[in-house]
Amino acid sequence: MTVLVQLPLSTRSAPPPGELLSLARNPSPDARQRLLLGVMALCDASPPAGELSPVLGEIFLTLAKRAEREVRRALAERLAGVDWAPSALVNVLALDEIDIARPILLSSPVLQDDDLLRVLIEASLEHQIAVARRPRISGRVVDAVLERGEPAVLTALATNRTAEVSADALRRLVEHSRRIAALRGPLTRHPRLTQALAREMYQWLGEALRQSISARFEVDEPRLAAAVYDAVEGVLRPASGPPAETPEREEMERRLAGKLHAAGQLRAGVLVRAAREKRMSLFVHGLAMLGGFTPAQVRTALAAPTPEALYYACATVGIDRAVYPSLLAALRAMNQGLPGDQGPAVWLRGTLSPASAARAFRALVETDRAVPDRMAV
Question: How many whole angstroms separate alpha carbon 104 and alpha carbon 73?
């Protein structure tokens, strides 16, 4: 391993271009060390006016392609802040190992939008994150980051206060925060966040971030929560009669259950209402999500000869045992009389803790995974 001698650069004058080119073509470790010192001295000197000469451009490119890792890293750090470095060299360094590329990606004024877009397409995740953190990136680069939808890169973009984020781009970031929890904190503090977008985000935020939004926009949190619940109720309220159970409808209900769950609005009352409105798919997927079960386990309970397993599932998610008989009747009415009426009325025995009910439910459904073909869900 070559040890680079740290000479005081201020005492050195930049060697003439011919000598530097000769050193650049010499593969010996000693020549590389002398070349590094010469290039550093050149960087400290006044840069040439206008475009660099082809000779100097070749010197820099030869150094970048042949130099050892530590040489390339030192070169990247020195060239990151100058506007006269050869574009071809800067682009080579921008696609190098991330420790070498990072200062170039974050600071080099030579990189243009097309260069940054190339990095987003060709380079590693760490390179993409550095691009998203780059100060004052353009709307074109921001849109490219949004199109790729990489969670870690989106999160880096959300923390970049100087990026050219349009109203539409911020809306798309907020939409991404439905599935990417790491985005939510930075977005609640983003200077361009509007009250309308904050209100939308409120549906899927945790309690602490909800309080942060309420304080920032001086809104009445209970009133905002009530408005969100009213919106959810509006989605649940059927226009006319019970919906037909089709694969398309089931997928729609599964997505609705997911949205309600993400918004913190999937509760026991929603499940009871779904059963009363004959929305079996919403009941199945809602109960599965709220209880931490699989839809197959819920369907097994719904097809069982006894209502015991279904009761335990309902007890897990907080459905009161006094409500269970009417809920059971509603489910049987649209499920060909299932679950059956064999076995004791276990809901009359007293309440169970959610954890105990969940264990009892899983123990029962694991004994019979088969779901009858006549199951109408």
Answer: 10
